[in-house]
Amino acid sequence: MKINPPITDAIIFSGGGGLVIRKQKTKVSPGKNNFEIMDVPASFDPEQVIVEIVSEFQDKVKLSQLSIKLPDKTIVNMGISRERTASNNIITNATDLRAESRKKILAICESAYYRQYEDMFGEIDVVVTSEVDTEIDLTLKYFIIDLRIRWKPGVQVDLDEKNNSAKIVGYINVDNNSDFIFENVELEFAEFDLAPTPVMPVGGEAEQVAFAQMQIPANENILRNVRRLKRRFK
């Protein structure tokens, strides 16, 4: 079953990327229940994914398998390169398009031109084993490594010459130059740099399953990184 848990919370890092928390209620039946998580950006860290299951029958429902796969970076980048070349050709020869079509076509071409590997989708498959028919609260947490999503501080100074005073207002600018949209999300901000996880190159069929993980990752990894946050605030 394909499910698309909405993003409920996100911690944006000053150095780029962040921690994403997604939650959804869903039903499970006796036996194995397979869930394919949709809209997972390829920029997520496959080494640090947590799935939490909460149920009224906690002793009868458990997470039995977590499978993770990222798209092949070489193949994706080749496709993106072809899209950019095609976009350039279309824009160059688009002078005779009708006005109502031109704007839409140029917008599509611009999106294709700036697309990156991080805008592609990865795969997270969850298998939940249950002994009863029940509803569960499924929570998914993962880090994203994307320098296009970050925050930076800003300061505005208002001078009052009449009263010889100044008012200083601090604020946060959030940059999101990715293709992903965060709507109705509880935002927090952290002064933190998340180093990318090294990727070991592989070839042949193994590339399609290079990041497949057939066991549940330990919670210690993600918790250790959260503890490293220098400063975190809403």
Summarize the helices and strands and which ones pair or pack.
Blueprint: E1 2-3, E2 7-13, E3 18-28, E4 31-41, E5 44-55, E6 61-69, H1 73-92, H2 99-114, E7 121-130, E8 134-144, E9 149-160, E10 165-176, E11 186-191, H3 219-227, E12 231-233
Parallel strand pairs: 1-4, 2-11
Antiparallel strand pairs: 2-3, 3-8, 4-7, 5-8, 6-7, 9-10, 11-12
Helix pairs in contact: 1-2
Tertiary shape:
flat
Order of helices and strands: EEEEEEHHEEEEEHE
Approximate helicity band = 10-25%
Low-pLDDT parts are 196-223
Strand order of the largest sheet: 5-8-3-2-11-12
Total individual domains: 2
Number of helices: 3
Tell me, rounded to a whole number, the average pLDDT.
79
Oligomeric form of this entry? single chain
Q: How many angstroms does the end-to-end distance come to?
A: 35 Å
Strand content: over 45%
Q: Briefly, what is this?
A:
The chain is of the alpha+beta class.
Explain what the structure shows.
- This protein has helices at residues 73-92, 99-114, 219-227; strands at residues 2-3, 7-13, 18-28, 31-41, 44-55, 61-69, 121-130, 134-144, 149-160, 165-176, 186-191, 231-233.
- It is an alpha+beta fold and 234 residues long.
- It folds into two domains: 2-70 and 124-233, no CATH class; 77-114.
- Strands 5-8-3-2-11-12 form a six-stranded mixed beta sheet. Strands 1-4-7-6 form a four-stranded mixed beta sheet, with no helix packed on it.
- A hairpin with a 4-residue loop joins strand 9 and strand 10.
- Helix 1 (73-92) runs antiparallel to helix 2 (99-114).
- The chain is flat and about 70 Å long.
- It starts with a strand and ends with a strand.
- The model is unreliable at 196-223 (pLDDT under 50).
